[in-house]
Amino acid sequence: KTISFARRLKLEEASFSLTTPLTGTYLSRMLSGDARYGVSGSDVNYYSKYSISGGISQRRIKLFQFKALLFFYIHPFRLSYIARHFISPKGMAKLFNKIRRFF
Predict the structure, then answer these.
(1) Distances 95 to 73, 76, 79, 86, 99 between C-alpha atoms, Å
(2) Can you tell me the distance from the alpha carbon of 75 to that of 1, in angstroms, rounded to the nearest whole number?
(3) In angstroms, rounded to a whole number, what is the distance separating the alpha carbons of residues 70 and 53?
(4) Residues 6+ away with beta carbon under 8 Å from 27
(5) In the prediction, which pLDDT does 103 show?
(6) Tens digit of pLDDT for each residue in 37-54?
(7) Is pTM, for the whole model, over 0.85?
(8) Is 46 exposed, middle or buried (CB count within 10 Å of its CB: 0-12, 13-18, 19+)?
(9) Residue 20 neighbours by CB under 8 Å, 6+ apart
């Protein structure tokens, strides 16, 4: 539902980060005592590494993240935005940075 909703938005740009309960936040306190979620906050990187397992594999979560990015950016509304990345040096750097963060 989130991917479908994001795709319909009239935005040129989106980020699909992974939920990360940062130390000291409400989410961190809420999940800290619940073993079902397997929270590990030692290596925080909400672009490419998840810290809440909840029984879902890292591979599956990354697949959902990739699907969200792909479906969002291939929408016809964003074609001109994508094209601008390929014709400007700043755009290419920004595109490379986005791809690098994903992996």
Answers:
(1) 12, 18, 14, 9, 6
(2) 16
(3) 23
(4) 19, 21
(5) 66
(6) 666 555 556 555 566 666
(7) no
(8) middle
(9) 41, 44, 45, 46, 50, 51, 52
